[in-house]
Amino acid sequence: MTMGKFLVRRILQGVFVIWGVITVMFGLRAVSPGDPATLMLGEGATQELIEHVREQEGLNEPIYVQYFDYLQGMIVGDFGYSWRSNREVEAMVIERVPATIELAVAATIVAIVIAIPLGVISATRRNESADYGATLFSLLGISTPNFWLGLMLILVLAVWAGIFPNGRRPVGFGQAIMTLVQYGSVYDLLVWLQYITLPALTLGTYFTALITRLTRSGMVDELGKEYVTASQAKGLPSVLVRYKHVLRNTMIPIITVLGLQLGTLLGGAVITETVFNWPGLGLRLVDALGARDWPLMQGIIVFIAIAFVTINIVVDALYNYLNPQVREE
To answer: Which parts of the sequence belong to the ABC transmembrane type-1 domain (predicted)?
Structure first.
């Protein structure tokens, strides 16, 4: 199968997945209790005003007509208006995307910096205390709920020790970089780093444990192959063999998981953003749930689905390019 056919097939599969998410979200809104017009206007609205809004929003149309109108709007990028703030949903989603991307990328960097060296040490020192410690760390990381870890980090490092700040960040990454470029000041960047450290550690813990186990498993498999023995017999230093050859051959599945998990982090940051009051999509989704703001909820979830599918396609294409055997299969 050529790369072009592979991409066309994956894009069609992605479109089908996104359509399924849109359909499920519309179905949930349709079967949820409560009149949308009443939710938009509040309990004190008159019946005449409620009927006017129902007619204006097309809520008195048959359900299939409402579905096709909604689907058509999604196709052209019209996500509707928030029932709570009467703002365009796409604008409310886009303005929160940078903060969520910042947190997801920071958590990924934390995971890479900690997990890969830990996995290499665990693989090269099997059945030793370092291996047992890495295994225990992985088990704790996978088992620990994010919300509990976030609360403990706030309590210990922010409240008791006072090392890190507690509260909503006063400056974003983009603003910090602009300040650095325009005025040569690193103050805003340091403030941003202080505020993102605890959320990134919280969100990246599970990811760190997963990559550690994956790195260890891949390294163990590679260390048992003949080319490693041949390289060592030629007198190559163990460090060179370990990091230049063995780790390099282990990176293909790790890169794949990194890409897939980045998409997962975009959607899985809801709890972390809520705990740390991080102004991203997750916190906005929780607010929309509390207000039963269905257009905003639908817009956020559909956007996350699109981002997740896009990242999956890019990672599959990269893996397909690096490993042509996948394309042949």
So the answer is: 97-319
